[in-house]
Amino acid sequence: MNKGIPLIVSGPSGCGKDTLLRVLFEKYPQVKFSISAVTRPKRGSDTEDGKYRFVTREQFEQMLRDDELLEHNEYVGNYYGTPRQPVSDAVNNGSDIVLEIDVNGAAQIREKLPEAVSVFIMPPSMDSLRGRLTGRGTEASEVVEQRLAQAISEIGRAGEYDYIVINDDLQTAADEIYSILTAEKAKYKNNKNFINEVLNNA
Amino acid sequence: MNKGIPLIVSGPSGCGKDTLLRVLFEKYPQVKFSISAVTRPKRGSDTEDGKYRFVTREQFEQMLRDDELLEHNEYVGNYYGTPRQPVSDAVNNGSDIVLEIDVNGAAQIREKLPEAVSVFIMPPSMDSLRGRLTGRGTEASEVVEQRLAQAISEIGRAGEYDYIVINDDLQTAADEIYSILTAEKAKYKNNKNFINEVLNNA
Hints:
2 copies of one chain form a homodimer.
Chain A: E1 6-10, H1 17-27, E2 32-33, E3 36-38, E4 52-54, H2 57-65, E5 69-75, E6 78-83, H3 84-92, E7 97-100, H4 103-112, E8 117-122, H5 126-135, H6 141-155, E9 163-166, H7 170-186, H8 192-200
Parallel strand pairs in A: 1-7, 1-8, 2-7, 3-4, 8-9
Antiparallel strand pairs in A: 3-6, 5-6
Helix pairs in contact in A: 1-7, 5-6
């Protein structure tokens, strides 16, 4: 069986990444999503089958010792991490799996999983990014400025990624991500075994 | 404007490449086809707007001297070649263009056009290849054996290609080729300018 593709997806706050990924999973339900392990307390809107797996600090530290995480970080006193096992299970079962992660996490994953493919989601313009960051309208302007500066610094690292998807039209952008998965599976290195099998039957 | 992708497509006799490309151009009429220059006499079934541009031997040799060909070869006394200009025009106008060519021609094109992307079309199995080569039923068995040997030797060079598309289901295979074009345009290197423009507006 052909392996699936582990796909890192990053993008600055305000690029519309969450909505884009929702459209991708609706349109291509065969694509899996990597669930993060977190130690932060569960909020009202969180469910166990959602984006997070809630673990204790002790459990998380045990996972770290056992090298069970592809990346992790600590943010305002809580751990966040990407468990390795569900990703390798998906890939070995031939399923593509999306790892939604920031630029620093992406760099850690590339170290541990060099076969990962990475996509950086871009806003269609700086104006649209600014619009989306201020559009929420609930934040003080210095918070917006801080997010914008953060977004610009992340875009400055887009060169670490294999692919760039511009999130202008959601359907087009979702199709582009799926095309990237299709093309990656068509790469020669992922079809070497098939070719050798055909030649062995000659 | 983003550039188009020059796409080399090769595949052994019996892999169903011609039918596959017909489906591709029907489904994605925006993809262009590179017309070969040939010195062989026109046959009844040939038309000027078809796969060939008919030129004299003198014209062909002038094109060679002017380095106007991306590749060429001589076969039973006739020249065959790929004119460079229509390919660069298409690419510069943002159009993808397919160059249907054998493994030797593909190697020549990669030298002159390193940005070309290449796809090798594979039959789904050795049995299907054998079936297609004998299925025509009009050739003597030694001709079939010779074609089979030729096909096997070409498949042995599949590793020179970026991508492998298995021609099992025609629609799926055509969609895969189109996905490869989409993914190639999404590569970071083809979006560097866009990212710099966005950052310059920050």
